[in-house]
Amino acid sequence: MNTRALAAKVLNQVVEQGQSLSQALPTVQQDLNPKDKALVQVFCYGVLRTLPRLDFFCRSLMQKPLKGKQRELHFLILVGFYQLLYTRIPSHAAVGETVNGAKALKKQALKGMINGVLRNFLREKDALIEKADQQDTLKYCHPGWLVKRLQAAYGEEQAAAIMTENNQQAPMWLRVNNIHHTRTQYQALLEQVELPSFIAADAENNNALRLEKATDVYKLPGFTEGWVSVQDGAAQLAAHYLGAQADELILDACSAPGGKTVHTLELQPNIKQMVAVDADAKRLVRVQENLDRLNLKATVIHGDASKPNDWWNGEQFDRILCDAPCSATGVIRRHPDIRWLRRDSDIAELVTLQKSILNALWEKLKPGGILLYATCSILPDENELQVKSFLESKSDATLIPLSEQYNSDTQGRQLLPNEDAMDGFYYAKLQKAL
Ligand SMILES: C[S@@+](CC[C@H](N)C(=O)[O-])C[C@H]1O[C@@H](n2cnc3c(N)ncnc32)[C@H](O)[C@@H]1O
Fold it and tell me: Pfam families of this UniProt entry (predicted)?
């Protein structure tokens, strides 16, 4: 199968039908050899990172947009532009293979048209790029609503830097399981298989290693045996900030796929009980898979964190992790489809959901207990403003320092994408009065 045509199919499913890339991409990749698999991925990620720009080029070069049954060809053309602008594929090969993609999509009659558009692009691209760079949405390849929100929150210059980072490829981070090795020991094992790595900048983030170059997980020493897991450095801070102690009852209220559940158990194997809840039954299967691979135990419950009375009538928790559903605007580097699948109106809905989860979980926290609120968002509404309004509404809640090392916070910690090479994340630690 033609890799350009496969990428066009996936892109059509994501952009026109609202499927997530993580759903659509694996379906077409299943029967491909590793090289073609990687190529389809590069085309899909690349086009999604530059979508409005490529769309603009297409609009400028075609009299009428391709619609309906021909829509896949629109994305095939974008895959063509992407190769010509951002890859080292020689232009004759990029054009030839893309034109052949039309046949694979059963639109052989339109091969000539595609050839013409791509060749015109080669001639006119410099002028088109200059025009595109005059508009922020085309320059930074983010939807207008998100550009506005980021500029309002961070100012123009910092928003531009964030959007530039969002368009880069994220590094692969590992979490070393101290039950088996120290980080230094595991780093040496990685060296032996020629996988150099760097340690995280935060001293307390002491399980985190960033690989110089991403790799297949099965090439990682002891992956199947649970020696190591893949988890971004910012996400790893959650278990350190939660700080679970021996004999405590812990709730991970939005747990799937379970990265923070298992990290918490790796750091503190002697807790009384870990309860891992999620509203998505399919994603919960992954929590159990992670627990099994790492040989850890938790009580896994399918439930709605905003209605804990439906699934919990036991004692109150010592610590609760609320890794709330959010806009995921901190992880756009890893999920370039997010910005096109989300709408501005989603943010207010998410803020309402987060608020109801926070309020409900607070009732299940012991006096003196700790709730760690986390999101992978970089929007203040979901983060410091959410926490501020929570603190205003609860006289028994206090914002406390995240850890001994990160103790100067007044608003929690907002990490921006690529800060110390990590994802964008937000943390706030709340304590209930005794
Ligand atoms: C950011 S993800 C959690 C990631 C997870 N903590 C980890 O580290 O692997 C947010 C999770 O919230 C879940 N979720 C969304 N609404 C929920 C609700 N009302 N109650 C419980 N879980 C919910 C989603 O299914 C999703 O798995």
Answer: Methyltr_RsmB-F (PF01189), NusB (PF01029), RsmF-B_ferredox (PF22458)
Q: pTM (2 decimals)?
A: 0.94
Determine the pLDDT at residue 366: 98
Residues of the chain with CATH 1.10.940.10: 3-139
What pLDDT does residue 410 have? Answer: 72
What was the pLDDT predicted at 112?
A: 95
CATH of 173-230 among 3.30.1330.10, 3.30.565.10, 3.30.70.1170, 2.40.50.140:
3.30.70.1170
Cα–Cα distance measured from residue 218 to residue 225, given in angstroms and rounded to the nearest whole number: 11
What pLDDT is stored for residue 123 in this prediction? 97
Q: Which residues of the chain have pLDDT under 50?
A: none
State in Å: Cα 256 to ligand 1 middle: 6
Which residues, in sequence order, are bridge partners of residue 431?
370, 398
Active site residue 326: no
Alpha-carbon torsion (284, 350, 159, 403), positive or negative: negative
Q: Phi, psi (5° rounding) for residue 280?
A: -105, 110
Query: Which residue is listed with tokens 């959650």?
Result: 238
For CATH 3.30.70.1170, the residue range(s) in the chain are: 173-230
pLDDT at 409: 64
Residue bearing the CA closest to ligand 1, atom 6: 255
Residue 323 beta carbon below 6 angstroms from any ligand 1 atom: yes
ipTM value: 0.99
- The domain made up of 233-432 has a fold known as Rossmann fold (3.40.50)
Which residue in the list 44, 141, 322, 376 is annotated as catalytic?
A: 376
